[in-house]
Every structure is written in C-alpha cells, then in structure tokens.
Write a structure and sequence with these properties.
This protein is of the alpha+beta class and 496 residues long. It contains eleven helices and four strands.
C-alpha cells in the first residue's frame, strides 16, 4: 500500500504544471562592436593606439596593473574588513538558506512520533456499565505531502533560486564598488598630497615676493595698492593650502574607514603612498553586448525580474484546489511490552482536498500585487541597463578628455619649467629682476598643480572605465565557488 502511495505521489510531482507567465529575457538593443567615441588629436589626426578592439577583458585583480604595493595592501585590507562586503556575504548566506527551505517543500515530510495515554472510562458511558482504565501506546512514522499539481512549490523554489543568484551578483557588485572606491580614494590621496606640497612651495614663494614688495614699498618704489595686491595673493594661497589640507585629511579618513576595522587606526593612522607611474593604461574604444550585459548589477536586476515572474505563478495557484496526502506506519498496543510485536503493526493512508470559495478578493489582490512587483522589477532592470550604458559612455568620453588633458598639461608643465630655468639664468646674469624669477616660479608651480590634477583625473577615468565594464567579472565563471573562497578572507570573527 505504502509503495503505491509513493509511486502515485512521485508521478503527480513530475507531471506538475506551472502558472507563471511566459517571459523572454528582455533584449538590450544597441549597436555592438563599434567605437563609442573617436580618438583624435587636436589637429584632427588619429591618436596613437590605445586599444580599439571590441573584445574587452580585465583581470579580476585589475588594480594590480598599477603596480603599487601600498594600493594592493589597502585593497586586500578592504576586502577583509569592509562592512558592506560582509553584509553582502550574509545576505548571500540568507538566500542560500531560503533556497534550502524552498527545496524541502518539494519533498514529502516524514516525522517520527511516539505517545502514551492512560484514560478512565466512567460507568455511564461504558457499554458494559462498568468503570475501566485503558492504556494506549503508539510508535511510528508519519508522512505528509501536498501534491504540487500546479507548480506552486516548484515555482517557489525557482524564485528562491533566482533570489540566490541575485545575491551572488550583489556580492560581486559590492566587491567591485568597494575596490573602485579604495583605488580612487588612494589615487586622490596621492594627488592631494602632491598638491599640498606644491601649495607649500607656492606659499613660500608668495611670502618671499611679499617681503620683497614690503622692502620696495618702504623706499617708495611701489604703491600701497601693488603691495596689498601681493599680500592678497599670499593670503589666498594660505587659505587654499589650509582648505586643501582639510580635504586631504577627509579623503584619508574616508579611505581608512573603508579598509580598516580598527577604530584607533581610523582615528590616528597615516597612509603610506607613492607616486603612481603606470597611469596610461591601454583601454578599449568599443564594447560588445556580451561584456556589457554581464555586469553584476545587470545580472542581479535580471535575476530579480525572473524571481518576481515565478512568484506570479505561485500567487495564481491559490485559485486552485490543493491536495494533501497523509500516511502512517507504526505500532499500536495497549501494553508497552507488546508494542513492537508483529500483531501490533498499524498503518493508515489518506488524502484531503481544499478548494477556496469565498476569499473576498484576497487571492486576486495577491495576484495583482505579484504582477505589480514583476512590473516594478522590469522597470528596475530597464533603469539599471540604462544607467550601465550611460556609465560606459560617460567613462569612455571622460577617459578621452582626461587623456588629452594630461598630455596638454604635461606640455604646459614642460614649457613653464623651461621658462623658469631661463628666468633663473637671466636672474643670475643680472638681466632680470627677482620679481620676474618669482613670477616664473609661481607659473611653474601652478602648471605643476594643474598637471597633478590631470594625472589624477586620468587615473580616475581608468578606474571608472574598468568599473563600467564590470571590473573583470565574468558570469560564466563559477562565481558561487569564487564567493565562498573569497569569504575565507572576510573578517567574520564577530560570529564567535
């Protein structure tokens, strides 16, 4: 009997249907494998090659292309201590647990039971008109199983699977965001520190110029107007230096918050950094659809859309009857010593059906809510897709602009350095004044300041492009295994 019961149950399980809506993966229509922007020199000729192919591939540890040990160490610390990354991993584990729960709903539930009762039967209800005391003992296995005729549990399991898939992509998105933030903050720390050094020299030069003008003013060589003009330049440079130091400190603290879990380190530690030499990285001008659409945020949004579509099917099954099977196999006896004997074997099998009739619109409202959630997920996917394409376009354009600016400011710096060197020679020969020399030096320092900014903007544009392309993420990899391996380095000691 029980064998037939199991066969029937399994047969119905495998022929179960689904009421989820049919959904094709939304198609992202755009011109693939074409340059997104032209690289031209100022005279209209083509730039030197910096990669023009549509095949874009970055390594997962892409930040190592800058060949900076301090940067590598900071990224490693961030991947260990980042609160956001640890939260993403916990959500990944929660999604895995939820998937396991939904998987269990697909299978029959078996439980063991044991019981003992002692009851008194009074005279007035006894068929024999006598008072009696009876014992009852039972021991057995209980089976319960709701037939998944309409695919409710299969769709719930599939929805949980898509939520689990989305949590994997969310982890990769968080990882990419954290790494990108660390790299950009580190580059900015270098930039701001270099700017502070230049401004310190600028303040020193303005101080020297002002002291010179004071001497000239005392002998009546210059007017009071000219004197205060130089003083205004000095005070402006001092104010700029003070503000820049505050900006540098804020940037450094933001970086320390990302990479460290030590509060004392966040409060008091100083950052080690060096000048980046490798900042003219080869990057593409075009992009293929495969590369763009495998960004983790796009994959996560698509997985959530598919999840919501499955849940529409789950909601629809509430209109239909549910059929449950129950079974019992065990022993019953009035004497505990005879409970396990062959003549105490007991079994039962049954089925029940439940059909909703009057629910006052509850089921319809739930179905509508599920459909609205799916619509919301679709628009969210569309929004993420548009944002991703916009980020790619913006990153490529800014990269081109940053590349040209760095080249222009490098040429300007070279010219100002030559002017300053010539001014030194002229001053040493007595053919120009100290004022001319100081002015030449200030122009040189301003050019140096602009060049440092242009280098940072170029480095930042490189990071933005890599991030826009997904930062080496490849959906074809075994990312579930990758996450579990990466999780080993996460600081999860708080669990203890």
């Amino acid at each position: 009997m029980m064998r037939k019961f199991f066969i029937a149950a399994l047969s119905l399980f495998f022929v179960a249907c689904s009421f989820k809506p049919w959904m094709d993966e939304p198609e992202a229509k755009f011109k693939a494998n074409v340059p997104l922007n032209e690289c031209l020199e100022q005279n209209g000729t083509k730039c030197e090659s910096r990669g023009s192919g549509a095949e874009v591939k970055f390594e997962k540890e892409w930040w190592k292309i800058f060949n900076d040990k301090n940067l590598n160490a900071l990224v490693s610390k961030a991947l260990t201590n980042s609160t956001d990354l640890r939260l993403s991993y916990l959500r990944f584990e929660q999604a895995a647990a939820s998937l396991g729960i939904n998987r269990s709903d697909l299978l029959p539930k078996v439980s063991a039971s044991a019981g003992a009762t002692r009851a008194k039967t009074p005279k007035n209800v006894s068929p024999y008109g006598t008072e009696s005391i009876n014992n009852s003992f039972n021991l057995g296995l209980n089976l319960s199983y709701e037939l998944d005729l309409w695919g409710k549990y299969r769709d719930s399991y599939s929805a949980a699977g898509k939520a689990y898939e989305a949590s994997i992509y969310d982890f990769e998105s968080a990882r990419l965001s954290i790494i990108s933030s660390v790299v950009k903050l580190y580059f900015n720390a270098i930039n701001l520190n270099n700017q502070v050094e230049v401004l310190i020299q600028t303040v020193e030069d303005y101080t020297t110029s002002y002291e010179l003008k004071q001497s000239q003013h005392r002998v009546g060589a210059i007017s009071e107007y000219e004197l205060y003009n130089y003083k205004a330049q000095l005070e402006s440079a001092r104010a700029q230096l003070t503000a820049l130091k505050a900006t540098r400190d804020s940037n450094n603290q933001a970086l320390m918050i990302l990479v460290s879990s030590d509060l004392n380190e966040i409060l008091y530690a100083t950052l080690p950094y060096t000048k980046i030499e490798n900042f003219k990285v080869e990057l593409p001008q075009g992009i293929s659809s495969e590369i763009l659409l495998q960004r983790p945020d796009i994959k996560a949004a698509l997985a959530r859309l598919e999840q919501k579509n499955y849940l529409v099917g789950v909601a629809r099954t509430a209109y239909l009857p549910s059929i449950s099977l129950t079974g019992l196999l065990g022993f019953q006896s009035t004497e505990l010593s005879k409970l396990a004997q062959g003549n105490s074997v007991a079994w039962s099998a049954g089925a029940s059906a439940l059909m909703p009739i009057f629910r006052w619109g509850e089921i319809t409202y739930n179905v509508n809510l599920a459909k609205l959630a799916k619509d919301e997920a679709y628009l969210n996917y569309e929004s993420v897709l548009k944002t991703a394409f916009g980020e790619v376009r913006t990153a490529l354009v800014q990269r081109e602009s940053a590349f040209m600016n760095e080249k222009n400011y490098a040429d300007l710096l070279d010219s100002q350095e030559k002017i300053y060197n010539l001014a030194q020679i002229r001053y040493n020969n007595g053919s120009s004044s100290l004022t001319d020399l100081l002015n030449a030096r200030q122009s040189y320092l301003n050019a140096k300041l602009n060049y440092e900014n242009s280098v940072y903007n170029l480095l930042s544009s490189v990071v933005d492009i890599i991030k826009a392309f997904g930062g080496g993420f490849n959906a074809k990899d075994d990312i579930e295994l990758n996450i579990k391996q990466e999780a080993r380095s996460l600081d999860m000691k708080f669990r203890d």
